[in-house]
């Protein structure tokens, strides 16, 4: 009887120990709420970081939701609906210009070029930008990076967006592609995979890349409130390390391998189309190979904003960009 009680005591201790260990293991997993401005193959490294377990390796559970638009994404971040936003860096400048006590800090760059393409309704042989003159151009939302880059590129090709063509900018971001498909506009500025899908379906034809035309710019960046980064430095470092590892993975693997890794995030897109889009973005160096947002890119961003008449005031790189997290991760 005494031996049975002794065995039961040992078993009870083992069960309690296992339970405590399991609880401890569960508590070590930290949840980070991320809001992405849209769902796009353009953000391939982010999905790779999830699918390949780079976040999990860092002890992070990323809750990803699509917030559909820069204004909605920033509102969600400011109201603490998310911890991290993946959105254009221009939004942090808009917030800072309004005098925020808790500025939005860019800490990890994901893409380094514009991700949109110029799509023509009719097939065009020997395309030149001056063919847009006198035509109707269906652009993106005023004040957003796609629209500002679009106008910047037009001006670089001696096209006045206000006078040389009919510019439509009053259609919501999510409805631009359907508006073009229904007959609005001669040309449209589209993200992938929509541009490639339209081409395959004969609804439009890709004739130029805004990313190739505009140069390096911090088009999409992970950002958080300054208070969040100060209160959670280890979390920010782990998050950035996972992104960096994913960026390196994307850079060193084929478009087909990347497409297979991110396919679960694009159920309505064929694997062939995903591969085509990834290859296109890789070819024009759209995916940043490290998370550092450097000063030159920041200045190019503000130059584009200024040219579009959307720069509220010029803000120094070090004021809204934290490069220490990214550089520390890369040096480890």
TrEMBL record:
Coiled coil (residue ranges): none
Keyword Signal appears in the UniProt entry: yes
Keyword rRNA processing: no
Pfam families: NMT1_2
Broad class of where this protein is predominantly found: periplasm
Protein localization: Periplasm
Protein name: ABC transporter substrate-binding protein
